[in-house]
Fold this sequence. Notes:
It is a single chain. With about 450 residues, the protein is an alpha+beta fold. The protein has three domains: about 10-270, BirA Bifunctional Protein, domain 2; about 285-380, 3-Layer(aba) Sandwich (Rossmann fold); about 395-460, C-terminal domain of ProRS (Translation Initiation Factor IF3, 2-Layer Sandwich), CATH 3.30.110. The chain contains 13 helices and 24 strands. Strands 3, 7, 8, 9, 10, 11, 14, 20, 21, 22, 23 and 24 form a twelve-stranded mixed beta sheet that branches. It has a five-stranded mixed beta sheet with strand order 16-15-17-18-19, sandwiched between helices. Strands 4-6-5 form a three-stranded antiparallel beta sheet. Strand 12 (about 240) and strand 13 form a beta hairpin.
Amino acid sequence: MENKKDNFSEWxxxxxxxxxxxxxxxxxxxxxxxxxxxxxxMSLIDSIVRKAVxxxxxxxxxxxVLIGRSMLEVEFxxxxxxxxxxxxxxxxxxxxxxxxxxxxxxxxxxxYPMFSLWVRxxxxxxxxxxxxxxxxxxxxxxxxxxxxxREIHFFEAHTAHATYEDAEAQMDQYKEIWRxxxxxxxxxxxxxxxxxWDKFPGAMYTIAFDTVLPSGxxxxxxxxxxxxxxxxxxxxxxxxxxxxxxxYAHQTTYGMSERLLAAIIGIHGDDKGLILPPDVAPIQxxxxxxxxxxxxxxxxxxxxxxxxxxxxVKVDDRENFTPGYKFNDWEMxxxxxxxxxxxxxxxxxxxxLSMRNIPGKITIDRSKLIYEIPDTLIRIREKMMxxxxxxxxxxxxxxxxxxxxxxxxxxxxxxxxxxxxxxSIEAKTEKSALGFMVDAKETGKCVVCGKEGKxxxxxxxx
RNA sequence: GGGGCCGUGGGGUAGCUUGGUAUCCUACGGGCUUUGGGAGCCUGAGACUCCGGUUCAAAUCCGGACGGCCCCA
Length: 462
């Protein structure tokens, strides 16, 4: 297997193939086939996301994939941000369509004409919906599994509120949701506010959640957008206030994609393969029997016990592979915890545990399983988060001059906010401004022009 | 838009300079023996991107198409 540290890109491609996550041989460029194991992981990620938003009163919907040209081309800057990457459906059978239809690149223009019908009065607000669907973007750049593709597995939440303050409160709630999700996925991140020229087309402002992969390049894994009334004015989403006057709704969105899976692969994996956070592992505990008297019965019994406490467990009962092969195979697939059972364990009424991310093996009494296994899965998750944070911090450098930008990773530095200074940095270092760090309070002199600036983060990004 | 590199079984490759039976690893089917850290032996099936040219003969040389990758704008 490729060496992760020195050949990250090759390692990344190889592990996706070996672990059976996705098959990129599908003969349409930029469109890959989700394989069973990869799709299962993605589905578990989705269910974590669902749980986090459902409990905050979002409701799941499912909009059509096709959007009429007239809906999309409502006259304002939103469409211009996407016009070069839209797939158009122009024919039905042999006939040209009267109105061309777009495959959604994102769903504002599909949803907001409906919002306009649904939102009548203040009693209809807040409106909080989401969907998890494919979106389509004709990427011209180099495609890369789960990172840059043309059919994207996408989560998008959309809200409408009575006031700007309510919409701002929603922005804060998004951050809370993200804290919850990122803890389960063991992903460290920065919040930063995108520069105006890089915000979501049509938004007032955009805040991104950025992480960094071992290559030193940053990866945007989530964005939240404050729309204010930019969209509601164009899609005519207004409501009757208590005083009898009308006002436009204030809107926000939250977007994430299969890049979450890319981040999990890239950040946690090692030279043996994937390491999956227990919360998204299709198999949390793999039981490997070492053939012998009574071993299979004992293994099945333990499987039943773990099933009964909702641990995702499987016995590897394949007969044509040796235990050693199975150890390596499941380590490559990232299973967090392995139980080994042979005649020794049967005789002593014990099990032997091996954690994917902690060296060594331990033996415990079979009677303690129902407490020890859930605790161990939590320990594994905590260790993964600690390791990921350490790795993240090793890729963050504070720079007080442009010369210090020359390292692989995220660079934090003071910046005045001007496009000229960001362009100048990009020309010299290949790194560009991701944005101002949202929670940083410090001020200082811009590393390019010396004017008063705030703390910003720069990187070469995916 | 400009330039460069590359297309060989499912995956990874050798062979190409100097034309002649296509190599090895892995994965896959069958069989026997194995199983506490990637088992062994036997056996089977499987490939030169396409079109044209040169030649007795093309994976190899020439031209073109298609596809992939990289760099620059």
